[in-house]
Design a protein that fits this description.
Four Helix Bundle (Hemerythrin (Met), subunit A); mainly alpha; about 0% strand
């Protein structure tokens, strides 16, 4: 296999981590924003104060894109001979982060509706979103650890 093809596969893995994370964040933010807009509409229609905090809930899934960027950078540091690992980490890691963002957005949508209706429980909703986000942090942390293990193994093989 040529070095150009190996580099291309490393790049595919790296960009997959970012791209899939961004897809999940876009979906999650979109779902939460739809709920926030509907909740604000209800508040306006009922003459009640409009809670700005819904903006915070709407933006919560964006952080997973940052995790994808970090994972992408780590994958890019892998050598060409580690292209299978780069591809696997990028695709599976990106997918894990993607689903975390998607489900965080769905949870945020529920938080938007509940907070606009009751005006209570905002911190509880943030805690629930943090629990969902923890999955993306686990994917990032263990992905980076695995990349470190792969790098050490590749160095040992090259030195043998």
């Amino acid at each position: 296999m040529t070095q150009e093809l190996q580099q291309a596969l490393v790049n595919v893995g790296a960009f997959s981590a970012f791209g899939m994370s961004a897809i999940g964040s876009a979906y999650g933010c979109g779902v939460a924003a739809s709920s926030a807009i509907g909740s604000w509409k209800k508040c306006y229609a009922q003459g009640r104060p409009v809670p700005f905090q819904l903006t915070i809930l709407t933006g919560a899934p964006m952080t997973q894109t940052i995790y994808g960027v970090i994972l992408m950078g780590q994958i890019m540091a892998l050598g060409l001979t580690c292209w299978p690992e780069a591809l696997i980490i990028g695709l599976i890691g990106g997918l894990g982060i993607c689903f975390s963002a998607m489900f965080q957005g769905r949870a945020a949508a529920g938080g938007c509706d509940a907070f606009a209706e009751t005006g209570q429980g905002f911190v509880n909703y943030l805690i629930a979103l943090g629990i969902v986000e923890t999955i993306a942090i686990f994917v990032l942390a263990f992905g980076i650890k695995y990349i470190g293990d792969v790098t050490k193994a590749a160095a040992a093989i090259a030195g043998a």
